[in-house]
Amino acid sequence: MNKKAVQWLYRELPELEARGVLTPEISGKIRRHYDEAMTSGKTMLTLMICGILGALLIGLGIILLIAHNWEQLSRFSRAVLSLLPLLIGQGLALWVLRTKPQSGAFKEGTATFLSLMVAASIALISQTYHIPGDAGTFILTWMALIVPLVYLMQASLPAAIYLIGITVWSSHYWNDSLKGFLFWPLAAVVVPHFIWTLRQEAYAIRSALISFIMIICVSLGLGFSVGRTWPGSWVIVFPSIFAVFYALGSFEFDSLTTNWQRSLRGLGGLALIVLAFQFTFRDLWKYLSGDVYAGVGETSGWGVVPDYAIIFAIVAMAMFFLLKTLKRGSLTDSLFLALPLLAILGYLLHGQAVVLLLLIFNAYLLCLGISHIMAGIRSNNLPIVNGGMLIVAILIIVRFFDSDINFILKGLTFIIVGIGFLVTNLWLVSERRCHEK
After folding, report:
1. Which residue from 41, 162, 181, 213 has the highest number of Cβ atoms inside 10 Å of its Cβ?
2. CA–CA separation, 84 vs 410, rounded Å?
3. CA torsion sign, 381 to 382 to 388 to 391?
4. With b meaning 16 or more CB within 10 Å and e meaning fewer, what string describes 389-409?
């Protein structure tokens, strides 16, 4: 539930009563309805957190108890004890599905417990019967067995475990582009649950959690699985994937109002800013085609097809969202989503016009900061203004330390920028107070 929207409604109710739009009885019913919903949401969140923590502690405790006397047990006893936690977890999951199908806390807790018990049973059975295999095989088997829980239990924590697992698995094949490519179809398995969670519970904490984990895992998986056959392609791919995240958070879920709920937009935008700052340094473009980026896991023939296909698909999505943003007329969003286009330009020109590229990306960051400041002033939003001023300030500081300008001039510039921060904030606070009066 959108807390800010409810607070706004509460502030409007007295005026609606005074105008006769609502009777005091109806106004009271509205308040009671939202009070109960807010209280219920907090209770469910508490129960879910306690259920997940309880499942983790119980699962780890069972594993430790079994491990303590493991060497003294017969092979048959070991096999029984290896499967017993798994059977207990399955029994609990079945009980929850039959008796408490609407309880998110119970479903998350039991699904998490069962996910851990699957891993414990696989490891114990493998150790008991000396089944050969490496860490990659173990992780992939574990993930394949727990992914049905995501949909049977409608549980997000097993989905998060699954995403983390396949990301770790893909790291084992970072120098094998064909095996690394499998990260993408594996990750796509939980995308329907990810979309369902955001659509059904856009304001819930688990939506923010799975969004955060999805961004981190996809970004890491991208680094492990893409770019091995195209040296330096990360300059294009990473701005494109972060632009896609930013666009999804801005357009598809624009009803979200708080920063923790908008992790797609927030983390995507932050990553784009960090990359833009990286692109303002000469050394990156100077050594882009050097040995440090080339020759890692190169393949030929059909081996390059998955790598190129993923890169072009991600870039195409970024360009699609850029065109969509330009049609909407949002200057700040357009600037964010323009970074992949500038990165492509930089990749094409890095061997011939490094100075021009440095000017372009410095100007880009300056425009991005100014657009934030102007947007914040128009909406009287201090965080947005401060974000824009922070971009400009960091750009000035970075360029000053990256140049041979006199220290006195640097110090004066820092003082001027600091005064600008204070004056702007004081002015916006006074404007806000005038509007509230």
Report:
1. 162
2. 68
3. negative
4. bebbbebbeeebeeeeeeeee
Cβ burial 253-268 (10 Å sphere, 16+ → b, else e): beebeeeebbbbbbbb
State which amino acid sits at residue 194: F
One-letter amino acid at 433 equals: R
pLDDT attached to residue 120:
80
Distance of CA 371 to the CA centre of its chain: 24
Query: Using an 8 Å Cβ cutoff, are 122 and 141 in contact?
Result: yes
- Give the whole-angstrom CA distance, residue 262 versus residue 250: 8
State both tokens at 86: 């798994």
DSSP 431: H
* CA torsion angle 352 354 359 363 (round to 10): 100
Q: Check residue 392 and give its pLDDT.
A: 83
Residue 236 and residue 254: Cα distance in Å, rounded?
A: 26
Tokens of 39: 């209280």
Q: For residue 388, which amino acid is it?
A: G
State the Cα–Cα distance between residues 157 and 216, nearest whole angstrom: 15
Task: Compute CA distances 283 → 39, 250, 286, 288, whole Å.
Answer: 55, 33, 5, 8
Q: Mean pLDDT by 10-residue block, N- to C-terminus, for the chain (437 residues)?
A: 57 69 70 56 55 63 63 69 80 86 79 85 77 81 91 88 92 76 90 82 71 89 79 88 89 55 81 92 75 47 75 92 87 90 89 83 88 80 80 80 60 65 63 56
Q: Write out the DSSP string of 383-417.
A: HHHHHHHHHHHHHHHHHHHTS---HHHHHHHHHHH
Domain range annotation of the chain: 1-132, 362-437
